[in-house]
Give the backbone structure.
Amino acid sequence: MSTYTKKYIITGAPGTGKTTLIKALEYQYPCIPEVSRKVIAAEQATNGDGVPWKNISKFTEMVYQSSVAALSSNPKALLTDRSILDLIAYLQIAEKPIPQILEEFTYHSKYEKIIFFAPAWQDIFHQDLQRLQSFSYCLKLDKALEQNYLERGFEIMKLPKESVANRVSFVYDLLKR
């Protein structure tokens, strides 16, 4: 029987440097890459509508299933790019109902209490094929994410709006505690 390691979440709105940070950290720690970007790319490749700006409910279900699978297949990973809890913030902004499965998910059994939060940062924000949201949307999501994590008892450690190397040092220092 393998031992499950609770994951430290790196979260934040799109375009805040999460994926860049995860890529830098994976040299030292096992990480789970962002699931939602993979879902979006796969849906775009097949002209599917399971993307947040077309069918948020379908997107939510696909990301949830893929995230559960990623958590199960990576029991030793220490860090994860986003978490299942992020889906609630997306749904709230879209004014869609929150599925019971997200409300009842046992977040604290899968994730560490401390999370790393990448705040909205216009200087590094850019749109791409999987990130079509505007910066103003990202500001709304930033607030919704922070509120959801705090409401569920997570402790937020805001990443500095500094270089990748400084962000890596910030995470390393907290993980050493």
Observations:
- The chain is about 45% helix and 15% strand.
- The CA atoms of residues 37 and 120 lie 18 Å apart.
